[in-house]
Amino acid sequence: MAARGFAAASRYGSSLVLADHAGGQLTPGTLSAITAASKIGGDITVLVAGSDSKSAADAASKVAGVASVLHADDAAFDHGVAENLTNLVLKCQEEGNYTHIVAPASAVGKNAVPRIGAKLDVAPISDIIDVVSEDTFVRPTYAGNAIAKLQSTDKVKVVTVRATSFDKAASEGGSASVKAAPAGVESGKTEFVKEELSQSDRPELTAAGVVIAGGRGMKNGENFKMLEELADKLGGAVGASRAAVDAGYVPNDLQIGQTGKVVAPELYIAVGISGAIQHLAGMKDSKTIVAINKDPEAPIFQVSDYGLVEDLFKAVPELTGKVPQK
Q: 0.70 cut: is pTM over it?
């Protein structure tokens, strides 16, 4: 009888996915969060919030596996202000009584989910990399050096999803209904002031198929132009270790690691990076890792598929010269 009860609960579970979107499209992280929700089981509802977001809501309705879309076309939800988003999610939860609330582990998700958990009096589970069952999840800990399996007994499970650990849901094939979300109440506690976006013709770091990353061995920010030239030839993005960011070589939006961005490209080239645990946590799931470092004992060689012990100032220009323009 207990087993049948568990199966019924699993069958009638439901997930609310908090969508990130930009330019009228869902982010890759949101598509990965939808895949995670599909592994949990039950109906999937996607919440799309923000002004001029109808295109994103329509895109969500076409994603395979999505049963319905809630659309909140209101400027109060622009820029991912956590207080306002939390109020909206709580209103949706009141009406939908979802068993799971799922968000990508993005800036918006990491900002809103802890507050949502606190308001629901449940313990959020962050950065999951696998779903074992509707109440059991897997997440990394100790900078990825240990993997924890967590079982939640909370009535509502609130989780963020590491995008690189789940395939992206197919953006076509669905035919979900789109309806207006319940009216959320603006908190009045927080006001968005401004954002400064860096402009680049290169792909976004977390979505790039090729990433060229530099570390303290680059010696200064001017030398990152070498990596930019190689990245442009390969059609990739440029990243950096925390040491390079802390040294002021590049801005912190390029930082890869435990306290930066997590990437898992097809090809990751680490240049002048020693391979500290903090950095490895953000890139070790890359499909192919190439390391260039003049120190043969550098820890980065322990996780790399290919290693070149050479002065980067000699190796990178030579490599760039041999790579055809993509």
A: yes
